[in-house]
Amino acid sequence: MNLWNEISLTTWETAVLTVCLWFLCYGLNVPVRAWQMWRNAATHEVLERVTVVRKSPRQPRSWTAMLRGLYVSLVLLGLMRIGVRWEANLLVRAEYESLMLDALLGAVIGAVVSGLLWLFYRTSKTVHVLELHFDREGVTIYPVRQNLLAGQGIYETRVQWKDCYGYWVFKGYFVLAMRPIGQVEQFGGSKLEQIEPILYRLGVRKLVSYDMREAGELSQSQLLALNDRVQKMADEVIAGYAAECAMLGVQICADVEQRHEEEQFSVLVLRSVVAGETVSDIEWLLWGEDGKTLETLGLADDRLYEGIDERVASLLEARQQEIGQDVPQVLYQ
């Protein structure tokens, strides 16, 4: 009696086995990821959920991979056929041929069903959506699952705020600085503008004033919006120093200038003007692009206000030293 006779799988049993093998390799990613999220929600009070859509990488050799899989399957069937002992009895040989046909037909049916399941799997959130769950103690990260169940690593990454002392932004990622040394890089993509205020509210401070981005990542309208935001903030700060300016006989002006040299960049220019002439000025880079990278000022409103306030105060102090008057105490309040 040969091995295939001992197994004696019908067509439908072989098809079910094929689908089960696919589910164990890929499909199980969906329920396990959902269970991990449920368990996290049960153990932590999730304050914010951010979903980041990640496009699947292009697979130019997908058809090649399918043909390779078909080739391997046919080779295995051929080896099975050669390795089984042939009986002289024609009836036994016919039965064996029937079993082989059932096995092949079952594998084809299972492959078709698995292919349909694969289409749904490739369009699911498990494959395309990165999940970030923020709570008061930390953030739980659920990466996309695009590969084999046992070949992609852990389902979730947990970062505790007590082990993190700040972050910065680099080319679509927010990088969490960990104690005593190390970092966790996490993709944020277009949701960085939503993620940063959440980190700020949870007490995770920004360590670097400038965000490094890919060239062209922000549109011209977004860069102009940054210019307008800084201009408005500078006008508010200067208005708060009206009494000091009058005391020192100086006028503080703020202008955002966009320049085109070897690089394209924008600066905030703060000037102290006396009798219509500029006596001193300070420039502060807002953003700059060199064709490959884009640096943008990424401070929150309170830190941006402090930065402008320090520069205006330094202009007034320089004017005070120039005319030899005492510095008004209000400058240091």
TrEMBL record:
Keywords in alphabetical order: Membrane, Transmembrane, Transmembrane helix
Keyword Membrane: yes
Transmembrane segments annotated in the record for this chain: 12-30, 65-83, 103-121
Keyword Transmembrane helix attached: yes
Name the record gives this protein: Uncharacterized protein
Upper lineage: Bacteria, Bacillati, Bacillota, Bacilli, Bacillales
